[in-house]
Amino acid sequence: MKILARFLALSLFCSLLPVSAKANQETGAIQVKVDRAKVMKIARPASMIIIGNPAIADATIKDSQTLIITGKRYGTTNLIVLDSAGEPIADEVLTVSSDRSSSVVVYRGAKRSTLNCSPECDPVYRIGDDPDTLSNLSQQFSQHFSDATSDPAQIDGE
Prior knowledge:
This protein has helices at residues 2-26, 131-149; strands spanning 30-33, 37-41, 48-51, 57-63, 66-71, 75-82, 88-97, 103-108, 111-117, 121-124.
């Protein structure tokens, strides 16, 4: 009898899984990756954009019917677009997530670091990584940027 009860409970649980996945798809949330931009076309000219939590995402009006949405950090917020009369054009859920398709996470004890491997592995900083990793990467990026934007080398005699 216990086996039958477990089987029925498992069957019920498994039958609910596709419904949950389908419900997420039907919400129509706009999906954006951290540090990536996405183009959103709207039906009417926009006058104002409101992001519920601007720490999660940013949006700009490229032209009257094209928005650029940029993911800033992980989370869910909302996006409201108003026309010049203050009427809503869009009121959407906006979910920002990470793109881990080419990431490798390395743990050294309790310290975590992330590598982007596409195809060679280079260090990147992700929220939750070891702060020492951030400090080292920040110094290297600053030096690289400084070198790239410095005056070009002078040729003797010119």
